[in-house]
Design brief:
By secondary structure, the chain is an alpha+beta fold. It has 2 domains: about 70 residues; about 200 residues, no CATH class. The chain is built from 1 helix and 15 strands. The radius of gyration is 39 Å and the shape is elongated. The C terminus is likely disordered. Keywords: Membrane, Transmembrane, Transmembrane helix.
């Protein structure tokens, strides 16, 4: 066997060194690729986590804004239609289904028409679900008059009752029983009609009325009542001639419920009685 010469040995050694260099370079290249892949995955995971956090944060902010809006809107109800609650099956009423003191109902009055507001048990713009209130217990008809006046609009308000109502006009001190039909005027003019006239009905001096069941000999409700306040706010509306006129927006505020609902004793059709502690009677 012929031995390798020194030159051949040197060449083989150079090739081995070259192979070792290439192997090292390849291993380094693979390591760098693996490192890049790992870094990309870590970055992607961090990005997803950050986006998820932002999404959750935005959802929480949106929920808070919605809750704030709902809590604000819960006290102002723009009611322009009469609602009727059909009864098919047993109805369970909870606190959120019942009106709360402080609830405000807003009504816009068309200058060429009229608006009817109905407070009732299961029907109306304001639904009480109370055993002390009848359907169509109190109906309020608001009719604009003197439409030819281009400076301000006057209104005639007519109250019609089906149940017992006590009411108190502005500047009056006492609640008195309401007749089957009562009327008032909101106007700056002195009309000939022999009905009460007021230039305005404000939040500080509203028309107050209480709705309930039977009255006792003292002229007070035996079991309980709902007290509502009716008042107006001035608004500027454009007339057909293009000028602006002072008109009014009407508000009905549920001021208080005395003594309150007793949801534990509600009927199967969702009618809720008053608490029994008022006057010691049921």
């Amino acid at each position: 066997m012929k031995p390798y010469s020194l030159e051949q040995i040197r060449i083989l050694e150079e090739k081995m060194i070259t192979y070792e260099i290439w192997v090292f370079v390849l291993v380094l290249f693979v390591a760098v690729l693996l490192l890049i892949v790992v870094m990309q995955r870590l970055t992607l995971a961090k990005f997803k986590s950050s986006e998820l956090f932002k999404l959750k944060h935005n959802l929480k902010l949106n929920e808070r804004e919605i809750d704030k809006k709902d809590s604000y809107d819960a006290n102002i109800a723009s009611v322009q239609t009469i609602t009727q609650i059909p009864i098919h099956n047993e109805l369970i009423v909870t606190g959120k289904d019942l009106p709360e003191p402080g609830t405000l109902y807003k009504f816009s009055i068309p200058s060429d028409g009229k608006r009817m507001i109905v407070i009732g048990q299961r029907e109306g713009n304001v639904i009480t679900r109370s055993s002390e209130v009848l359907d169509h217990h109190l109906t309020i008809d608001i009719c604009p008059i003197d439409q030819s006046n281009l400076e301000y609009l006057s209104y005639k308000i007519e109250f019609r009752r089906e149940g017992k109502v006590l009411f108190q006009l502005p500047q009056s001190k006492d609640f008195v029983p309401m007749e089957m039909k009562e009327s008032v005027l909101i106007s700056n003019n002195n009309h000939i009609e022999s009905i009460p006239i007021f230039s305005k009905i404000s939040l500080d001096s509203p028309i107050r009325f209480r709705l309930g069941g039977k009255l006792n000999l003292d002229g007070k409700f035996n079991i309980g009542y709902f007290e509502f306040h009716l008042y107006t706010k001035d608004i500027l509306e454009r007339t057909g001639s293009g000028t602006k006129r002072i008109e009014k927006q009407f508000y009905v505020k549920l001021y208080k419920i005395v003594p309150g609902y007793d949801t534990a004793k509600q009927t199967k059709d969702g009618i809720v009685p008053m608490l029994a502690r008022f006057g010691g009677k049921v």
